[in-house]
Design the sequence.
């Protein structure tokens, strides 16, 4: 069905369909949703070049088949860092997360915590694993708010004691008041 | 608080077992597999979107190690009163709303 849709959008052009319709299963890479994107490639003033680039020269680009393409500007879109290595040092119980995740398969807990990183809750864009970008919403914040709430207030009986307050310790009323505010 | 190493291992093992049956594992370079053509799927949740919501709805507290700020875990019980009994609060809310806990 998608192959048919793509071929139709590309006006059945043999060159375009060969270059653009993939041979791997749907979903193994994210779909390109852009409405009108494929259609735009069929416009008269657009040319899709799938040949490899061997050289950039002052007037343009040289292709593997020897052809020279003269251009005014070159925009590089050659990829990006798709690893989960944090962009800055993050030192935990097992060392720097940059080193750990660069050397080993990244591991995390339920897309929100990292082993050896107490009280570190992750969300986009730092070292978030197993999180689908298109699904980020408030639901993802629920366990985190529960966790921070719980770890800040007291480690036990999150549900049974949230209305308790007052303590001879002067610091407690304020903290206990937060408990109620959190749950309102 | 921190997740225990065996909880993280179990979660990773489940993902490793689950992912090969999905289209994400098919051979094509993608960020699902850290940019590799063939490799372990690391970037997505092992399941559907709604499945993921359900997973996160109920934290598994037993998977965490806790370090307390104070020695006695029941310190928060304080002087034994509830905020419902503070001035201006409704201490008998349950008469009007018997199903409401708080």
Sequence:
């Amino acid at each position: 069905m998608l192959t048919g849709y793509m071929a139709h959008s590309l006006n059945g052009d043999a060159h375009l369909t060969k270059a653009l319709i993939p041979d791997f299963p749907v979903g193994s890479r994210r779909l390109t949703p852009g409405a009108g994107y494929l259609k735009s490639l069929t416009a008269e003033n657009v040319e899709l070049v799938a040949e490899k680039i061997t050289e950039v020269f002052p007037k343009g680009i040289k292709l593997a088949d020897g052809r020279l393409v003269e251009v005014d500007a070159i925009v590089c879109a050659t990829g990006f860092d798709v690893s989960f290595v944090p962009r800055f040092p993050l030192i935990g119980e097992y060392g720097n997360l940059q080193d750990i995740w660069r050397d080993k398969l990244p591991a995390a807990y339920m897309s929100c915590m990292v082993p050896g990183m107490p009280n570190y809750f992750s969300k986009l864009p730092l070292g978030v694993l197993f999180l689908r970008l298109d699904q980020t919403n408030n639901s993802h914040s629920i366990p985190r708010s529960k966790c921070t709430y719980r770890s800040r207030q007291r480690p036990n009986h999150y549900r049974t004691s949230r209305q308790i307050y007052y303590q001879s310790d002067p610091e407690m009323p304020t903290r206990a008041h937060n408990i109620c505010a959190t749950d309102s | 608080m921190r997740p225990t190493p065996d909880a993280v291992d179990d979660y990773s093992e489940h993902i490793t077992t689950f992912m090969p049956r999905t289209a994400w594992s098919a051979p094509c370079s993608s960020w699902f597999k850290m940019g590799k053509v063939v490799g372990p799927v690391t970037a997505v949740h092992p399941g559907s979107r709604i499945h993921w919501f359900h997973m996160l709805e109920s934290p598994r507290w037993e998977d965490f190690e806790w370090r307390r700020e104070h020695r006695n875990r029941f310190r928060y019980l304080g002087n034994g009163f509830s905020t419902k009994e503070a001035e201006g609060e409704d201490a008998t809310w349950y008469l009007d709303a018997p199903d409401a806990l708080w």
In short: The beta strands of chain B are 2-3, 64-65, 81-82. The mean pLDDT of chain B is 86. Helices of chain B lie at 5-18, 49-57, 93-96.
